[in-house]
Fold this protein.
Amino acid sequence: MQNFEFHNPTKIIFGNETIGRLAELVPSDARVLILYGGNSARKNGTLDEVRSALGSRFMQEFGGIEPNPSYETLMQAVEYIRTEKLDYLLAVGGGSVIDGTKFVAAAVNFSGDAWNILLNHGRNIDSALPFGTVLTLPATGSEMNCGSVVTRRETHTKLAFMNTHVFPQFSILDPAKTYTLPTRQIANGVIDAFVHITEQYLTYPVGGMVQDRFAEGLLQTLVEIGPKALATPEDADARANLMWTATLALNGLIGAGVPHDWATHMIGHELTAAYNIDHARTLAIVLPALLHEQRNQKHDKLLQYGQRVWGINSGSEDARITATIEATRDFFERMGTPTRLSDYDLGNEAIDLVIKQLEAHGMTQLGEHGDVTPEVSRRILTTAI
Ligand code: NZQ
Ligand code: ZN
């Protein structure tokens, strides 16, 4: 196992009817900005619950944070906070609202052009406003990590940043808040969490026995509950387990002391930036093709994953690896999520554009070995047609 440090300061409040706990979690003298997305949090009553839990605190609201939050919109929130002298942020929504809030928290204190936060992947932040979250969509793990992804619409640039200053102070995870999610977003959540796990697990063995078993347990849980969460929206156990699995998939625990891949995500981000395909849907396209392309480098872990998660034990090693990749693709398809570029009417021209963007963003040595060059990314995307 590799050396590691593990530190996660985010407090999790998990369970039904927990939004009222905001009354004790947010400082009583805070000047609060509630940030939210489109209309879902208003329509399903979450915003009203949040407001009433905050009681007599000074509060303002900033809505309209888009899926794949835009730098342009978030900078409006930054201006608003500066003008109104607000000092505490509360994100109410999914990964986009939480990521957007992280960026805003860092940008308010940042001097100079805040886009540099993204260009430096967060290394240049030395403070951020404190914030908490109320999660309404289990998927990204943003509620318990210090990463954020922001898109600059004018240039179709989607970049990530990380910094320990943007860990949420707390996150409220009420599984009942997911009942209003459309099935497509539930499928997205299952697949995003699934691929967060594979990015930290499907690499090469380093003797991280606990990390492997945790990862396999989380993957098996998603395989079991994913279809249930789709078919029976008010299955409380399925929703609760999905929420906790998605959080654990990217809170640092399973990734401590083991190699990481993240090539699927980096290629996927370019597909979202260029063609506005939902984040998780890009992962469902890229991952099966990437596993196929990297089957030699990932040989040992693919066999282990096939055996322990999918029960694939017989046949030659090569046949087992092929069956494992196909089981993964089949799972995504069973979740109602297409796994081919052609399902979005995209082909070689799209590949040319994505490769150009990967190069422009320095994504030329991806993967756990740094061997996913633009040429390899091209082969992956070609397989994905
Ligand atoms: O905007 P509203 O009206 O709220 O609707 C949202 C949005 O349209 C809706 N929604 C959320 N909660 C709902 C609901 N609809 C009904 N009932 C509810 N309870 O769902 C739609 C999608 O929301 P979004 O927040 O965009 O989805 P998700 O949580 O999948 O977040 C995706 C973003 O997170 C980034 C992605 O790149 C993408 O920008 N990621 C962040 C990561 C991180 N911070 O660690 C890691 C991930 O790999 C990912 O890159
Ligand atoms: Zn993701």
